[in-house]
Amino acid sequence: MFQIALPRCLQFVLPAMLLVSCSARLYAQEPPPEDPVALVRAASWNELHSSNSGHPFRFRLRKQDETGSTTKDIIETKDGDIARLIAVNDKPLTPERAQAERDRLDNLLAHPELQAHRHKKEQEDSARENEMVRLLPDAFIYTYNGIVNTPNGPAWRLDFVPNEKFLPPDREAQVYHGMAGQLWIDCTQKRLSRLDAHLISDVNFGWGVIGRLYKGGTILVIQKDVGENHWEALHLKLNLTGKILMVHNVTFQTTEDSSDHRPVSNALTYKDAIHILESE
Q1: What is the CA radius of gyration of the chain?
Q2: Nearest-CA neighbor of 274 among 83, 117, 57?
Q3: Which end of the chain is more exposed for a tag (fewer CB within 10 A), N or C?
């Protein structure tokens, strides 16, 4: 699922994509869409209604921020994701840290209510992300800007600027009023493959009382078919600065990269996933 995500305190949500020249034959095969908004609406619908091949996946997620990096092995299950920390700053865990991670997973096994709470939070976050994707067709004015070739195949490239007539339904959606950039849509599957946006003005939440994101921040999300028509966010990069409650200055400089995606059984429970991770 294509994700557009700020940190949870300002909840809103892909490796760098190699660009190569498109041939005249490619342009002949993929004419420009007559209505960019209709194209975005179709892609948004596909994101929200995709079954993602009908089964969960296992993958690795590396997160880099101001404090360093962490790498996790993650298994998706019907009971929610299970993650095991496997590296800090690209180095294996110390024996003490590895034991602490085993103890954490054992505690999850012994207390199913903890995983139920985590799963509920995941579903709430996913619902917010889905709402942001649903609003994409109406939040911006789109202009067709040619075709680019990507590792996933040709994609339509659209420029976008804020739609002044768009009325944000909640605080999260207010960020759209200050965003401009490019949106890429896969020509074959009509899936959102890249969002490259920047803030062209300060964005206030709750008239600036709750929070504010400053002009100049950037958001990059890249998504790809990792196999069997299953799309995953491969790269997320946030570079944002702002203020919370008119007092606290905040900086979000985060990069997330996922890799090694492979399907797992849709019958897996969260306990099964823990046993798999602990056994390895």
Answers
A1: 20
A2: 83
A3: C
